[in-house]
Write a structure and sequence with these properties.
29% of the residues lie in helices and 34% in strands. With 252 residues, it is an alpha/beta fold. It folds into two domains: 178 residues, 3-Layer(aba) Sandwich (Rossmann fold), CATH 3.40.50.150; 64 residues, CAC2371-like domains (S-adenosyl-L-methionine-dependent methyltransferases, Single Sheet), CATH 2.20.130.10. Strand 7 and strand 8 form a beta hairpin. The longest helix has 15 residues. The protein starts with 8 loop residues before the first helix and ends with a helix.
Amino acid sequence: MYTESASWYDRLHRNKDYAAESRRIVEHVRRNHPGARTLLDVACGTGGHLRHLREEFTCEGVDVEPGLLEVARDRLPGIPFSEGDMTDFDLGRRFDVVTCLYSAIAYVQTVERMQAAMKSLARHLEPGGVLVVEPWIQPDMIVDQEEKWVDGSSAVVVIEDPDMKLVRVRIFRVHGRLTELIMHYVAAADGEITARTERHKVAMFTREELIEAAALAGVEAVWDTDGLTGRGLLVGVRTGAAAEETQARSVA
């Protein structure tokens, strides 16, 4: 994943409007759970959303990538961060809100692992708690041939800061329901040039698959078509009895 580019992540995503996205998340949460006080961000990355969500909630973060967590801990020293895989992590406590944003759910790659991730997310919700999951692109976005998601399409990001010049070239490939983002980086800093490559394989889950997985985890979910970035958004509430039954079956 971001093993090669963690230290560059914030530079490359500096134009992402984390503040506006966080306000939208708060709106969904307050509509479903006005008294929510605690929030866990799963696949939190460098803490871009938590930087704003902490103004509304007592927050924690989880991510599988140590390099991203290192940046997050430096950026937000008052927030606890844990390393864990979203498919099976267990912090041993529950929260009023659990989020999984910026298409991170797609990294699990299969429906079975996505369902396991949903159960892990739901397990960390208090009954009545709110789950917010932002997917990767939908399969019909490929069918519609939206320009930036055409197989073989490319994109370039150029960052020119006083201390670093950074270029990322991305190639987008489609392999059935799996997409691949091939990232090539070149950075110039401190009199040196560094070149690195990453391959990100992410799955296109349908809204129906995501809503069904939430239901299996004891979460009643609806779909926000616009979402945070035009990719849609699953917003659900954990139903106490259903969630407890789900957990009991998983233990058995």
